[in-house]
């Protein structure tokens, strides 16, 4: 009997020892997980770094503070940055064309369009205007407006068009690398500025890390954007019927890493299913370049990945080729309007 009691006691002690082992292991792992998720794994976007430069006071789009001239140091190399009265990069243009025949183009996109890492005269929109003007000569004046904003995706691009670009009656819209993600920098900045808690956390270094990680891990609800996308594209389609406006989607790369979600093929394919109006006309342009080849070329800023001035010239040439081919096959007068068809 005593032997059986001793065996039971020994088993009990061993079981209790194993339980303490697991408790101790969990006690060590939990702080490590917290430190990793909230202080190390912060994601690639830092809304806290961009927030001071953004003006979220108008419409649903955060732009840069108007009329700002500075030297930006967020890229590998510092570069000149001039912001116009609208809060976008580039010179101010009058709403009414000085010459009714002027070809007016608006380019929307993220930092590749905005031109991180290059000076004001070296961005994609500037290169596109220069290329088209050289090829068209004195036959037609060309104006290209830069509506690109770093880490802003399609939802924000469309909001920028509705709030700011639409008033300029563009003849051509270009959406570069349209992605379907909702949580871009515009969404993050709007969320921080509208939340007392997040704004308070932003005042400390550790708080900024927490906010950044929270926004990186927040789940997206794709259906929440479908209604807005549908309405926004209806607006674009109505403008297209009114002005014979052309719409292009431009893909910088033909092949991308599998973990990069929502690029042009996915976005366009997804929007064809119940989002695009049936009569919306658009064309797709691709560079035909693999992203790995691009990164190794002289067209990419080493250690950064954004295009060099030569890279912007190359991409602008591809877009210009497509635009000029379309203009040659359908030489409608820019700025001309027509009565919308009965539907």
Structural description of this entry:
The protein contains twelve helices and nine strands. It has 343 residues and is an alpha/beta fold. The strands form three sheets. The protein has a five-stranded parallel sheet, sandwiched between helices. Strands 1-2 form a two-stranded antiparallel ribbon. A two-stranded antiparallel sheet has the order 3-4. It has a single domain, classed as Rossmann fold, CATH 3.40.50.1110.
Tell me the strand order in the biggest sheet. 6-5-7-8-9
SSE pattern: HHEEEEEHHEHEHHHHEHEHH
Q: Mind telling me the C-alpha Rg?
A: 26 Å
Whole-number mean pLDDT: 81
Q: What coarse outline follows from CA principal-axis ratios? A: globular
Beta fraction: 5-15%
| Fourth-tier CATH superfamily name | SGNH hydrolase
Number of domains: 1
CATH-level-2 architecture: 3-Layer(aba) Sandwich
Structure summary, number of beta strands: 9
Low-confidence stretches: 36-44, 333-343
**CATH topology group:** Rossmann fold
Largest pleated sheet = 5 strands, parallel
Features:
two-stranded antiparallel sheet; 12 helices; 12% strand; 343 residues; alpha/beta; Rossmann fold
